[in-house]
Amino acid sequence: MEEKEELKEVKEELKKEEEEIEELRERLRNLEEKVKKLESTAKASNIRAAELQRELDYMRERYRRDLEEQRRFGHEKLVLDVLSVLDDLERALSASKASRDFDSLLKGVEMIYGQLRKVLEKHGVAELEVEGREFDPFTAEAVETVPSREHPPNTVIRVLQRGYRLHHKVIRPARVAVSVSEEEVT
């Protein structure tokens, strides 16, 4: 009887082990499925990452080309406007050669000068207003000092070369004469 019980215990242990083995096999199948899904996801992610890298490289190259084109042709509208002023200047010179009339030439050049200033203003270029104001080294370059009793020291009293800004950036400072007190000179 002991043998029967032992045999029964062995069978029960064997059955439990077989159930454990089956559970482990089921768990292994689940893990293998998860690994396959993760491998599939990783593969898809790697493919997407490669696509995004190619897209990024393309965008960088396009941006570089666009910048280069902007640098080369960005002033096209300004050039076209200046060319129309140049055409008017050529017509004025041609007409003045034929008529030899200085007053007409002067009047034509003054009109063309006005046109050119309007073109520059249209494109954001403006003259710096510095005369009569306190000297500002960001907008003017002092190339001369003049003793003066009529003007306070450090005042721009004469513009020798006009300065200009493009939008809000000074592109050429004015060259100016600045007043100093007569005591500073002596």
Characterization of the model:
The protein is an alpha+beta fold and 186 residues long. It folds into 3 domains: 1-73; 75-123; 125-186, Nucleotide Exchange Factor Grpe, Chain A, domain 2. 65% of the residues lie in helices and 17% in strands. It is built from 4 helices and 6 strands; from the N terminus they run H-H-H-E-E-E-E-E-E-H. Strands 1-4-5 form a 3-stranded antiparallel beta sheet. A 3-stranded mixed beta sheet has the order 2-6-3. Strand 4 and strand 5 (169-172) form a beta hairpin. The longest helix is centred in the N-terminal third of the chain and has 72 residues, at 2-73. The termini are far apart.
SSE layout:
Blueprint: H1 2-73, H2 76-99, H3 102-122, E1 125-127, E2 140-147, E3 156-161, E4 164-166, E5 169-172, E6 174-180, H4 182-185
Parallel strand pairs: 2-6
Antiparallel strand pairs: 1-4, 3-6, 4-5
Question: What key phrases describe this protein's structure?
Answer:
alpha+beta; 65% helix; 3 domains; 17% strand; single chain; three-stranded antiparallel sheet; Nucleotide Exchange Factor Grpe, Chain A, domain 2; 6 strands; three-stranded mixed sheet; 186 residues
β content, as a range?
15-25%
End-to-end separation:
136 Å
CA-atom Rg in angstroms: 43 Å
**Principal-axes shape call:** elongated
Helical amount among residues, as a percent range?
A: 55-70%
Number of helices: 4
- Overall tally of structural domains: 3
Provide the succession of SSEs. HHHEEEEEEH
